[in-house]
Specification:
alpha/beta, 5-stranded parallel beta sheet
Length: 304
């Protein structure tokens, strides 16, 4: 850890030295990233490895980190909170310890104590995608409240003034930050549009079968719904199936949220599965992690 902090300190000095130079000359370049990452061990613990967000992060980081001399490893809890906690605990006690833990938290609180324990052990902890009740050294992910606002704007646009103005939601779960923040953004935006209302807001627990079931019930109870916002493209295929089975394709505008994966987002819009997808960019987020923002985040910890 001391080696990492020393290297980062050197980068900070170099950055200050370059401040008076033209913008093109201020980029510390590959050598600075190599100095920060060479010989460092970085371990990522997502919620599971078998979905696009985790695969995207792992795909880019597994290229960028070794390119600069670091070692990148992943653990696969396979959606088990207990397995994820065990993976983090094992990383903290491993020899050598990782220099950085990258964690995709399943909810606001489950890993908080473990992540604080990791920091006390001298490990930098970065959160990706999902915020948590924990002061991480850095967060890399989307602005979920803003994405909720964008989803609501799209629902209002698609329904139009002459519609029923009835909107349905298929939320993730009651404890995951991405679901909670999306909901807040949707409610905030909806309040700006007279007559529009959320008539149903069940949870899918991020499961396509459950999304299909709750959407079927929603459409039976509210057949005039003009738009549905499903909080994740991974389960929105269930909502899409329910809309088709109800004979409402083309009448109910389905909006999903995704990470930019082509088949899950672009192809689904093209074939009519979704009306729209509000997406983050895993590529841009992960490249920012492997580059300047890792240095900035580490400096922030030093300053704190």
């Amino acid at each position: 850890m001391n080696i990492l902090k020393s290297a980062i300190g050197a980068i900070a000095i170099a950055t200050a030295t370059f401040a008076a130079l033209p913008a093109a000359a201020q980029d510390p370049g590959p050598e600075a990233y190599k100095n920060a990452l060479e010989g460092k061990r970085i371990v990522m613990v997502p919620m599971a490895m078998g979905f696009d967000l985790a695969q995207g992060w792992a795909g880019y980081l597994s290229i960028e980190i070794p390119n600069f001399g670091g070692v990148f490893e992943t653990r696969d809890p396979n959606w088990s909170v207990e397995a994820g906690a065990q993976a983090i605990a094992e990383a903290i006690t491993s020899d050598p310890k990782p220099d950085v833990l990258i964690v995709m938290a399943p909810d606001m609180n489950s890993y908080s104590k473990l992540m604080r324990r990791a920091q006390k052990a001298g490990i930098f902890v970065f959160l990706i995608d999902n915020p948590a009740n924990f002061k991480a050294d850095a967060f890399f992910g989307g602005d979920w409240t803003e994405m909720g606002r964008i989803e609501a704007k799209e629902a209002v646009r698609a329904c139009g003034e002459g519609s029923s103005k009835q909107i349905g939601l298929v939320q993730g779960d009651q404890t995951n930050a991405t679901s909670l923040f999306q909901y807040n953004g949707i409610v905030e935006e909806m309040a700006k549009h007279d007559g529009f209302e959320i008539v149903a807001e069940p949870f899918s627990n991020w499961d396509a079968t459950t999304s299909r079931t709750v959407t079927t019930t929603m459409l039976q109870q509210h057949p005039d719904i003009c738009a549905i916002i499903d909080f994740w493209d991974g389960d929105a295929v269930g909502a899409a199936a329910a809309i088709r089975e109800a004979g409402l394709s083309g009448k109910v505008h389905l909006i999903a949220n995704g990470g930019g994966e082509k088949s899950a987002n672009c192809d689904a819009i093209k074939n009519g599965t979704y009306g729209a997808v509000v997406s983050t960019s895993v590529e841009r987020e992960s490249l920012r992690y492997a580059g300047n923002d890792e240095v900035s985040a580490s400096k922030q910890r030093q300053a704190g």
